[in-house]
Amino acid sequence: MNFFANQYVRTFAIAAAAFVFVSAAGAVRADGQILKEILDRMDGNYRTLTTVRANITMKKTDPNTGTSDTYVGVVNAIPERKKQKGQKDQKLYARIDWSKPKEVLLAVDRKYWLYRPALNQVLTGSSDTAKKNAGAGNVLSFMSATSKAQLQAEYDVKYAGQETIAGGLQVWHIELTPKTKKSYTVADMWVDPDGFPRQVRIQENSGDIVEILLTKVEKNPTIDAKIFSTAEFKGAKVIQG
What we know:
Elements: H1 12-19, H2 24-48, E1 52-62, E2 67-78, E3 93-100, E4 102-108, E5 111-116, E6 121-126, H3 135-143, H4 148-154, E7 155-165, E8 169-178, E9 184-191, E10 197-204, E11 209-219, E12 237-240
């Protein structure tokens, strides 16, 4: 699951002012400059982000029926990271304590465990193949620190404009189209001035739409590695997803 920073004093207002009065031809060049700025800031986020804690809201919608489910909770994560040559890569570790409904979603690399205490059961499997429970994992992979090189290697990236998301935060909107087959067809990402993805929406191959919003983001907090253990699921019925 792809789930989340340098501090910058420059704001979106500066970027907007710089490109307000451009011709149609100039707009294309401006978009390219803005996209480069976004990717550069994401690269800075990638290089400095080691842990993340935030409030999380996930909404899953079935476009065929128009029905949706909303989940609210807290996420703690250690982002996936490609190490330098000769070093071992850092796998993604993420844990979401859902309060609505009360569940725990744990992800380590590409494997997930969904613990439902009320039923005393654990659903487990691969986030790449699971049909129902991989949504958060797919989106959280985006929320991890992602380098500029990784994004450009794996996606066609398009700048889609400046927008405002929940809480009044101004963000950049980019569209990501996978260059190779994935479990989703397209992804939209909203990036803050620090280069951190605050909101992501993906359309899965099934047609379902998964949206995740992060608020009250803490960057590089101390996280006890014990929370990524499956020990608390011991005794629960295990169901392969």
